[in-house]
Amino acid sequence: MAGEAITPGDILLIALPSHDPSGHEQEGVRPAIAVGVPQGHVRYPVVIVVPLTTYF
Description:
By secondary structure, this protein is mainly beta. Helices cover about 0% and strands about 35% of the residues. The two termini are about 25 Å apart. The relative contact order is 0.29. The model has no long low-confidence stretch (mean pLDDT about 80).
């Protein structure tokens, strides 16, 4: 996906940081859906994602 724009609904593979002490937080590499993508020129571009589970 290098060089391509992210659009809402795209499925991304993201790396979430680990937590110490560990709890119920999602961490590690997992798929996520992009839900909030900045449009136009913004000062601090932030993509909002919803992490998905790795279990069925």
